[in-house]
Amino acid sequence: MKYVIYALSILTLISCKETVDSESSNEVNVTHEVNVTQIEVVEDQIPTPQLTLEQANNLAQLPLHCIEDEYPNKMGHVTASPEDQKRPSVQHPVFYGCFDWHSAVHGYWSAVTLLKQFPELEAREELLQKIQRNLTADNIKVEIAYLNTKDNKTFERTYGWAWLLKLQQELDTWDSIEGKEIAQILQPLTDVIAQRYVDYLPKLNYAIRVGEHSNTAFGMAFAYDYAVHAQNEDLKSAIISKAKEFYSNDASCPISWEPSGYDFLSSCLEEIDIMRRVLTAEEFHAWVKEFLPGIENGKLDIEIGKVSDRSDGKLVHIDGLNLSRAWVLYGLAAQYPEYSNLNEIADAHITNTLPNLVADDYAGGHWLGSFAIYALQNASNAE
């Protein structure tokens, strides 16, 4: 990545002395003292990636081949009795595929997003049939009953919750007969999750700042978008209150410590993602300048994450980190164009990572497509 330095000079005139040389023409010698503020601007060398039909057809293969793929499966289930041991498709008749519950949820989100954006998608009919076969009113009742069991009320808090709300929002905005029908079917489960957020957030005394599933800022960012979309004022107020409580006084985030070995979220950038939503423009610009010094001048010193073994389900998380970093930076630039210098950093992250996703090992293939699609969505908004 090539950086170009532009100097913005604030000129203060200290003295101006004219000297007349009798042996030559008049000359004016002017002495200036220059106070230079440097703004680091990234030269736009990498085209911002766009989601094309060809890419969509490739990415559609990931949810197509995983939302009904029951095994292998990581249940994340608290067993209350021997009778409580059930196969995934019985325990979760909607979200039993894609290795785990939350990946199944954003597998459906990927499918719906691609169907909406690309009516000519090659796998359109097959994807739609799989969604309608599994996402039924009776199956949603089973999913709700599971969340109401004594030992699993905190199931998928808050990562899976966040993606469930994102799925509902995508369905609600799908202008089609199928979209309206499926959105209505999913809504009762969504209402349960939204209320879980409202009940949970006031009890959480400390932010969770890890780079994995339980990151509080990530969970609140997606939930905030749904709250605005659904005009759910209780949910919106709970998120605004807790985000300000947790993050308003944060400064000098140690982004040089990132990534940890298993991160798929940036602890620092996820804070920016929620705070740009809940603060006014004036509040946000003042806050981010203290939170990540230099970012207001287009400077963000991060390296693209490297993956050593994409067959390792934990190590491949770093591909997800590259994509989630990209969507945060694109989202910031789309909301506040003065940060558009950061788009080149996002472009580098997503361009480096996209080739690794299609025909990927199942360790990453069951979820990384969703991250790529969401990053590409944000890329198009930032252009």
From TrEMBL:
Q: Which InterPro entries match?
A: DUF2891
This protein's source sits in the domain of life called Bacteria
Q: From the Swiss-Prot or TrEMBL record, give the protein name.
A: DUF2891 domain-containing protein
**Which source organism?**
Nonlabens dokdonensis
